[in-house]
Amino acid sequence: MVLTSTLLSQFAVGAVALYTLITAAERAIDAFLSLARYYQVPDVLIGMTVIAIGTSLPEITAHLIASIGILSGALDYQVTSAVVIGGNMGSSTLQQTLLFGLFIVGFGQLQLSQSIIRDSYLPMLLAFALTFVVAVDGSISRFDGIVLLVAYGAYTYYHYRHRRRDYAVPETASVNVRRDALIGGVALLLVVLAATLLLAVAEVVVDTLALGGSIVGVITLGVAAALPELSTVMDAIRRRAPDIALGTLIGSNIVNPLIGLGLGGTISTYFVPFPVIAWDLPFKLAVGVGLYAYIRYGSNRTLSRREGGYLMILYFVFVVTRLLLFPGQ
After folding, report:
1. Which of 141, 225, 232, 280 has the smallest set of CB atoms within 10 Å of its CB?
2. Distance, CA of 47 to CA of 167 (rounded, Å)
């Protein structure tokens, strides 16, 4: 009875922390978008920074707090590494399959431009491959983390030089700079506090239920952290504006591994759970390469609701297979 009560209280605290994490991240993004508009930051830079990194703010913050906790000894090295890496993989896979599929189904039919494939989709596949290479030995060292961060820097430079300049950011300029700056700062503080609380709860739940930290990350932090991208997808469907959603979904799949794992590995190093090496990353690569081959050779760069439905199904294949093959890991 005491154990059940403890777990229920931990789940309640975790739910509040998750809600605060996502809500505060969205408020921070909105505030910083308004400020960027006010200071007339070019759309291409807004898309590459505020939008791409902002929608990955929950994952990035979780990695930073986890690494600081590991470094200080406040959080368990293996459990915390597994939770945040599992959350990273879960979030990016959900975006790559379920949200991308939902977007295609809602939009009806989508034709990917050659520039999107060349400038965004192929770099995403390279990010997956690089992440697998640095993680395959079961750890992410500080050198590995620096490699990931340098790769993101190279991508950002290339993206800035080659990205189309007609990228439209649907956000109005700030009418009260001080207010928006305050809102953004407070929201960021709440994100940090919520991530700290969430990781502490996850460690207790993992220890109590003898679950694997990575599967806890996949089904909790992974799902919750993808909610900002979900709102972007729904807004893009409503506006009939595919570029924002595509840029966000593909961009987040580059930001998550390169910045999230890069920062975490550089600060504290990470233990990489076996399911991430044996299933998560190979699955992401296989889906990504398979879709690229289909777009390149089988569909004239056009995706219909049928392909969108297949992508949505693949997400559930990912989660169910992971649970079946790696229970408790």
Report:
1. 141
2. 8
Q: How far apart (Å, rounded) are the C-alpha atoms in residues 59 and 56?
A: 6
Within-domain flag for 328: no
Q: Give the separation between CA 69 and CA 87, rounded to whole angstroms.
A: 17
Cα-Cα-Cα-Cα dihedral sign, residues 121, 123, 129, 134? negative
Predicted structure pTM score: 0.82
Q: Quick one: which of 206, 282, 149 has its CA closest to 7?
A: 206
User: What is the residue whose two structure tokens read 């809500």?
Assistant: 23
The encoded tokens of residue 227 equal 């909610």
- 261 band by pLDDT with thresholds 50, 70 and 90: very high
Q: Is the pLDDT of residue 44 over 90?
A: no
233 inside domain = yes
Answer yes or no: is 329 within a domain.
no
Q: Where are the alpha helices (DSSP H) in 39-176?
A: 43-46, 52-54, 57-72, 77-94, 100-107, 114-116, 122-135, 142-162
Q: How buried is 299 (Cβ within 10 angstroms: 0-12 exposed, 13-18 middle, 19+ buried)? A: middle
Residue 138 has pLDDT above 60, yes or no: yes
How many C-beta neighbours within 10 Å does residue 290 have?
11
In whole angstroms, give the CA distance from residue 266 to residue 146: 6
Report the percent of the chain where pLDDT is more than 90.
Answer: 29
The dihedrals phi and psi of 14, each to the nearest 5 degrees, come to -60, -40
- Residue 289 is part of a domain; what is its CATH number? 1.20.1420.30
Residue whose token pair is 């591994």:
257
Q: Which domain holds residue 230?
A: 2-323
CA angle 236, 240, 244 (to 5 degrees): 40
The beta strands (E) that lie in the chain are given as: 109-111, 139-140, 270-271, 302-304
Amino acid at 123: P
Backbone angles phi, psi at 169, to 5 degrees: -105, 115
Confidence of residue 67 (pLDDT cuts 50, 70, 90): very high
Contact (Cβ atoms closer than 8 angstroms) between residue 95 and residue 225: no
Report the relative pairing of strands 109-111 and 302-304 from DSSP bridges.
antiparallel
